[in-house]
Amino acid sequence: MSRTPWFLRFLSPKKRKQSISSSTTTSASDQQRSSSTSLPYGTPPSSNYVIMDGGRRYNNRDDIPALFPEDDEENDRRHRQHWTLKLAFEGNFDAPVEEALVEGIKVLDCACGPASWTMEMAKDYPRSEFEGLDVTTSFPNAIKPENCHFTVHNMIDPFPFPANHFEYIHQRLLVLGLLASEWDSFIQRLVIILKPGGWIESTEVAFGELENAGPMGEVVNEAANALTSSRGLNVDIAKELGDRFEKAGLVNIKTRAIPVPVNQGDKLGQLAWENFRDIFLALKPFVRQTHPQLDEEFLAAFGEECKVYNTKTIWYRTYAQKPKAE
Ligand SMILES: C[S@@+](CC[C@H](N)C(=O)[O-])C[C@H]1O[C@@H](n2cnc3c(N)ncnc32)[C@H](O)[C@@H]1O
Q1: pLDDT level of residue 6 (50, 70, 90 thresholds)
Q2: pTM above the 0.90 mark?
């Protein structure tokens, strides 16, 4: 199969191929079995990876934007990011689902990554059943709570679940994973598998929109916007989710925006800074195509600038309800 080299693919927005891991013909339970007994369904062959930037491993697939490395270092960053977000929002969710989770419901975590949220929630709510989906296989295969199941699945494909299946759907940080043109149909397909009266919740970051940015912060904002627009991503999705949920027929919509100080104040500011820096280091091969000045030295100086300008990054969490059946 001919494959466009990554550096050429970077130059124009992605045109998606059908997913490598199309799971439309396999039932959810079949996939759970396969993911717990052997290599997860759809595990890409090693030729789908390219080693760049001092040994970091990047995905070279045609069916996902694949900007982040897929390696242990990135998984560690995502675990730390989970704790940063939990601290910023003072909890793992805002939707009014606590009581239902205690009693026992079906929960879906979309693009679960290494499954920090899924695993913690499964442990906290042992009567509920958690399904984690991700296009890569960074989720745990064997060591996981019994009420936690994982399947390889690309969010652009139809979901391997029946209509009205989940009471609660969680999705976090797909801003660099879905093309701008894919968000509405993704949300519509989520609404189909959500039970009437069930809740959906999304947490995203306003990537490329630092508040109180100094001169270096403006360069960082520019670089983030250049990256997302060149790849056909939607940098504004964090702020648009409320409207998009409404358009999809959802009700009782609430958004909470949390400005998080970068490299200032207490532990949260420090964690937010380290996460921000590590994101830009992870995206380095792509960011430097347009902004070569964004090296380690620049980032370190930008970290200091944040303290002077009181620079903040803004996280958004939006939840909404599927109308109850008449
Ligand atoms: C920044 S990580 C967030 C992981 C997790 N949601 C969290 O908050 O810790 C983004 C995840 O989205 C996944 N992803 C990106 N595009 C995807 C797609 N089209 N379908 C499924 N997963 C996707 C990536 O593999 C990655 O695990």
Answers
A1: very low
A2: no
